[in-house]
Design goal:
This protein has a 7-stranded parallel beta sheet with strand order 3-2-1-4-5-6-7, with helices on both faces. The longest helix has 29 residues. It is built from 9 helices and 7 strands; from the N terminus they run αβαβαβαβαβαβαβαα. With 273 residues, it is α/β, with parallel strands linked by helices. It is 53% helix and 14% strand. It has a single domain, classed as NAD(P)-binding Rossmann-like Domain (Rossmann fold). Bound molecules: NADP nicotinamide-adenine-dinucleotide phosphate.
């Protein structure tokens, strides 16, 4: 019995080392072509800051969202060529078509950031709000990923970035629909990564898990802590993209909360939260 446990342990450690050292270095050595990026949900908060960071680093950027006035205002300020596409993810098939059009208008796509999201707590059990979370964060997210992947596979390169949340790992009370939607986003990222890895193609998938970021989404949220500015969050996301991270906590110290949530007993979480 001891021998079986030992053999399995050695295989797991060897597999982990092979995966994280050998395979990752092969992928990281692949050329980085990313020059044209699309930010889904670029009108405010993290998405807007990311569009600014990308443009300041030379990317041509496609900006999407429902509030066309905000997207056009942002477009005026960015130093590189930019494109605006008004899009409401609650109509997924139309959004997919609009994303395809945007890629055509931009003349290609190297990087897509699936950032759009909607949040509402479950205290009032308002089904219309719950449905909107699922429409935007689940169906809309999957629809955008589908179009991007269908573009990346034949062109044989690309980078898909999903903005999930630390909540993907732990569903806090009164926020179960949002947390479940973020678990979906993280699982989709992992599954796509596992699907493209055997191809050996330089197609990367990064799962971004922010903690609190100072945006409209959490403006009324009480008891915030370790809150970063959208700019700081965007810069850390940009670094994670450049180093082809699989999962990145934003800011980095939110990894500690992630570990703590895995280890803490329920009574302790009930006491603290
Ligand atoms: N702020 C935080 O503390 C925090 C923490 C963890 C994860 N996140 C995630 O970070 C992402 C960005 O959120 P944020 O904090 O920057 O909030 P935000 O300022 O409210 O930004 C949300 C973005 O999503 C877009 N969006 C929402 N509903 C949409 C729809 N139906 N169709 C198309 N676009 C839609 C919005 O554009 P329009 O309104 O113009 O459509 C906006 O650009 C979200 O996925 C969120 O879940 C945020």
């Amino acid at each position: 019995m001891k021998k079986i446990v030992l053999v399995i342990s050695v295989m797991l450690v060897a597999g982990y080392l092979f995966n994280s050292i050998v395979l990752d270095s092969v992928f990281i050595d692949a050329p980085l072509h990313a020059q044209k990026a699309i930010v889904i949900g670029a009108s405010s908060g993290i998405g807007k800051a990311l569009a600014e960071v990308l443009a300041n680093n030379g990317y041509e950027v496609g900006l999407t969202g429902r509030r066309a006035d905000l997207l056009q205002g942002l477009q005026q300020k960015l130093p590189t060529k930019t494109f605006v596409k008004q899009m409401d993810l609650r109509t997924p098939e139309k959004s997919m078509q609009q994303l395809e059009e945007l890629i055509q208008e931009m003349g290609g796509l190297d990087l897509i950031i699936l950032n759009a999201g909607f949040a509402h707590d479950d205290k009032d059990l308002d089904w219309q709000k719950s449905k909107e979370i699922l429409d935007v964060n689940v169906i809309g997210f999957a629809a955008m990923a589908n179009v991007a992947l269908k573009y990346f596979l034949p062109q044989k390169h690309g980078h898909l970035v999903g903005v999930s949340s630390v909540c993907a790992e732990y569903a806090f009370k009164d926020a179960f629909t949002y947390a479940a939607s973020k678990s979906f986003a993280s699982a989709l990222c992992q599954g796509i990564r596992n699907t493209v890895r055997p191809t050996g193609l330089p197609i990367y998938v990064t799962d971004i898990r922010p903690g609190f970021v100072d945006t409209a989404m959490v403006a009324n949220c009480p008891d915030k802590y370790w809150e970063s500015s959208p700019r700081e969050a965007a810069e850390q996301i940009y670094d994670a993209i450049q180093s082809h991270k699989k999962i990145a906590y934003v800011t980095k110290r939110w990894r500690i909360i992630s570990w703590a949530l895995q280890l803490a007993p329920d009574w302790l979480i009930d006491f603290v939260v």
